[in-house]
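Provenance

Sequences were taken from public entries as deposited. Structures were produced by running a predictor on each sequence independently, with no templates supplied. The record for Ribose 1,5-bisphosphate phosphokinase PhnN from Tritonibacter litoralis is shown for reference.
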Amino acid sequence: MTDDISLGPVIAIVGPSGVGKDSLMEALVAAEPRLSLLKRVITRAPEAGGEDYTPVTEAEFAQREAAGEFALHWSAHGLLYGVPAAAVVAQRAAGRGVLVNFSRAMLVDAQDVFGNFVILNVTASPEVLAARLAGRGRESTEEQAKRLAQASKPLPEGLHHVHQIDNSGELSAAVQAALAVIYPDQPERA
Ligand SMILES: Nc1ncnc2c1ncn2[C@@H]1O[C@H](COP(=O)(O)OP(=O)(O)O)[C@@H](O)[C@H]1O
Ligand SMILES: O=P(O)(O)OC[C@H]1O[C@H](OP(=O)(O)OP(=O)(O)O)[C@H](O)[C@@H]1O
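Predicted structure for Ribose 1,5-bisphosphate phosphokinase PhnN:
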């Protein structure tokens, strides 16, 4: 898409199911007006809840893909996910950093596409993940087990700007750690 670092960064939030990616993104946007959150297009039922997404059928997803609407798209958990290019362009052009919940498998492609690209790899112990997924309650027990089996998937090779963010403890601690990475020149926040 562009290598122009005068545009706001695209900030990939990655990590296993239940680690707190969506919670962290929402808290970051609430804490920092220079950040915005990318709303993904997903073939997930509209009533599933959780993150704010654009629900579509598989046919509509295919139409949007064919029309070139997505900067990137992938398949995971039996669903299709798309990152709408126009929304990313608009948010970056306004100078904002754009938070996107990405698949770890897409990071090398995303790094090529977006140029100014930072990865926050969010971590927590397997016990914490299992408890949080159960607490979220969006997926069946069987689906939770499938997601937990994917939890330790490593990041691909060849990524330039990867930062680990521990979300084992309070969410506010992870927010502060993430802000320190995204805006390293800012004094520590209260
Ligand atoms: N630091 C935290 N402490 C306690 N609960 C958390 C924390 N971060 C996230 N959660 C909870 O864990 C569950 C999974 O979080 P979510 O943001 O949906 O994870 P992900 O998007 O990575 O799958 C949610 O119920 C959320 O409220
Ligand atoms: O390749 P992976 O890194 O394992 O990621 C696979 C998918 O899991 C996450 O989706 P989603 O946010 O729908 O699920 P989650 O909340 O359970 O993580 C992530 O955004 C990817 O779409």
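The domain at 10-182 is CATH 3.40.50.300 (Rossmann fold).
The radius of gyration is 16 Å.
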